């Protein structure tokens, strides 16, 4: 786990943001993040909501039309203690897992041993399920 330091101007990541184009997308997003992954709404307003991940927020805008595009941010990583269990739930809900659960030793100094898997979310976002081992 990263150690917290308070010496800089940035104190952490507050939230990531996604948007739904239709009411149907919003229903799928709520079902995925709330019913399958178990996140809770911490704020809701006309046109948006925020879901609590435990150490950051996912903001969902619900009032904008537009084209979904994958930008320079490639994925979001959600910390879990059970990568395999979440992958089972995600797959049973019909979502594509495109990287199966596996152990990786990131060749850092020191070596960083993790377990991880990836799936596509309801808006096409790439989600990594991540656990230190």
Number of helices: 2
Helix content: 10-25%
In whole angstroms, the N-to-C terminal distance is: 10 Å
Largest sheet: 4 strands, mixed
Just give the CATH class: Alpha Beta
Find the structural class using helix and strand composition: alpha/beta
Radius of gyration: 16 Å
Shape descriptor reads globular
CATH architecture annotation name: Roll
Give your account of this protein's structure.
It is a single chain. This protein has 133 residues and is an alpha/beta fold. The protein has one domain: Roll (2,3-Dihydroxybiphenyl 1,2-Dioxygenase, domain 1). The chain has two helices and eight strands, in the order βαββββαβββ. The strands form two sheets. A four-stranded mixed sheet has the order 1-4-3-2, covered by helices on one side. Strands 5-8-7-6 form a four-stranded mixed sheet, with helices on one face. The termini are close together.
Short characterization:
It contains two helices and eight strands. It has helices at 23-36, 83-92, and strands spanning 15-19, 40-45, 48-52, 57-61, 76-79, 97-106, 112-120, 126-132.
Topology:
Blueprint: E1 15-19, H1 23-36, E2 40-45, E3 48-52, E4 57-61, E5 76-79, H2 83-92, E6 97-106, E7 112-120, E8 126-132
Parallel strand pairs: 1-4, 5-8
Antiparallel strand pairs: 2-3, 3-4, 6-7, 7-8
Overview features:
133 residues, alpha/beta, 2,3-Dihydroxybiphenyl 1,2-Dioxygenase, domain 1, four-stranded mixed beta sheet, 2 helices, 18% helix, 38% strand, globular
